Amino acid sequence: MNEEQSTGDGQRRRRRRRSNHQKNNHQPKKQGSKQGSKPKKPKGGGRGTRGGAKRNGNNRHTGQGRPGTGHRFPANRNHRTHTAHNLQDSDLPLSVETSAGGLVLSGLAEAVQPDGSVDLSRIYVALIGRLDRRGRLLWSMPKGHVEPDESEHATAEREVWEETGVAGEVIADLGVIDYWFVSEGTRIHKTVHHHLLRFVDGDLNDEDPEVTEVAWLPVNQLVERLAYADERRLARQAFDDLTDYARAEAQAGRATPR
After folding, report:
1. Distance from chain centroid for Cα 41
2. Are 227 and 233 within 8 A, CB to CB?
3. To the nearest 10°, the Cα dihedral for 80, 81, 87, 88?
4. pTM of the complete model
5. Cα(124)–Cα(198) distance, integer angstroms
6. Alpha-carbon gap, residue 176 to 143, rounded angstroms
7. Cβ(121)–Cβ(220) under 8 Å?
């Protein structure tokens, strides 16, 4: 290639570059067209949100519930305290309710091994399942309202029998859950007393119209099955004492009816 041809080729290449540069400056850039780039996420709607509204671990809104929804607002949760205070100061009619229930335990004595250890997978608890408005089956501890002139222990035993079909005898207090919610234009402050019960007799049934399903569940699967965080907290507390209760049942010579 001679010098004249080299100079001509260089001029043509420079003209092509100027022409391409002018075209690029006059064409609008396409957003996200760069290879490997991703469009930016809108603010306020990141992972775990819907429409920017944050949800807690059990998939319930942290904001104030609408009348008739029955949303729960535990007063013992720091991140919900402001909501409970709002309901306390509200002008809506107030209803104070008390309920009782708990966990029926089957197989306590049988869970104690020859070496004195306790196999929690051999202890079973009775749970109830109810369908929510989305058709999801939510598992929880059986419970119900305390009737006039009725003790909390008597209520727990009665409600467990009515909702599960099995009879139990209270052997220990498990804990209290305290929460607020709004239903049909009334603010409700509910306190629920939970207990541990020894299985006495009966067979599971779902004859209660408010219960969709009932089931025996190994106690070592209890926490992951319960739908509500406040009940999961109580279940974790129960684990610390179950080994002592099982050994006490075995030492007393009790056997679970079959």
Report:
1. 28
2. no
3. 160
4. 0.66
5. 11
6. 12
7. yes
pLDDT tens across the length of the chain (258 residues) = 544 444 455 555 555 544 444 444 444 333 333 343 333 333 333 333 323 333 333 333 223 333 233 444 444 433 334 456 666 667 788 899 999 999 999 999 999 999 999 999 999 999 999 999 999 999 999 999 999 999 999 999 999 999 999 999 999 999 999 988 888 888 999 999 999 999 999 999 988 898 999 999 999 999 999 999 999 999 999 988 999 999 999 999 999 987
Distances from the Cα of 190 to the Cα of 75, 96, 152, 182, 237, angstroms: 10, 6, 14, 11, 21
User: How distant is the alpha carbon of residue 199 from its chain centre?
Assistant: 26
In the 3-class helix/strand/coil scheme, how is the chain assigned residue by residue? CCHHHHHHHHHHHHHHHHHHHHHHHHCCCCCCCCCCCCCCCCCCCCCCEECCEEECCCCCECCCCCCCCCCCEECCCHHHHHHHHHHHCCCCCEEEEEEEEEEEEECCHHHECCCCCECHHHCEEEEEEEECCCCCEEEECCEEECCCCCCHHHHHHHHHHHHHCEEEEEEEEEEEEEEEEEECCEEEEEEEEEEEEEEEEECCCCCCCCCCEEEEEEHHHHHHHECCHHHHHHHHHHHHHHHHHHHHHHHCCCCCCC
